[in-house]
Design brief:
Blueprint lengths: L4 E8 L2 E2 L2 H14 L19 E8 L4 E7 L8 E5 L13 H7 L7 E6 L2 E2 L6 E6 L2 E5 L7 H8 L4 E3 L11 E6 L3 E5 L10
Parallel strand pairs: 5-6, 9-10
Antiparallel strand pairs: 1-2, 1-3, 3-4, 6-7, 8-9, 8-11, 11-12
Amino acid sequence: MSKNYLETIKSLDGEIFNILYHQRRYESVLKSLGVSDFKNLKEFLNPPASGLYRCRLSYDEQEINITYHKYKKRDIKSIKLVYDDEIDYSKKYSDRSALDNLFKKKENCDEILIVKNSLITDTTIANVVFYNDGLWYTPKKPLLKGTTRARLLDAGKIIEKDIYVKDLKDYSKVALMNAMIDFDIITKYDLKDVTC
């Protein structure tokens, strides 16, 4: 049975953001499945003309389906470290059950930060980036190579680096990045309080 994959694309007042990076990842997934006939994702998008929307593009080797959802940003003030050495989310799958099961371990926190083989990876909704001495560093081995992460790496605004749990004390700020929130510095707490 064919798996379904996702692209989550930001739309504000009808404008579509960063489609080039979504197109690139979509083509990369299909190439890994042996498919070389790509569709132009932009031709499938017709978001509402007013408001902030999450365009949910679901696809497999043959079909593309799109739904539009009003977007409201989650308020994240606390993050719990959760460990899983087996998790694989190297493609943006429609089936998020592995992430959802880990998210259930958040206890009183708002979000989790997934640790795989002692390395910091991602939250369930975003790539992460950490600040030290004037530079922002993102894990070299994220669970998913996000489109915003790719764009900021290309622009030289963030740097890849292996970040171990023991290194977290060396960073003074943390930010989340994904297609909807772009680059969002969490200011409500400092990194030393990253776990509840």
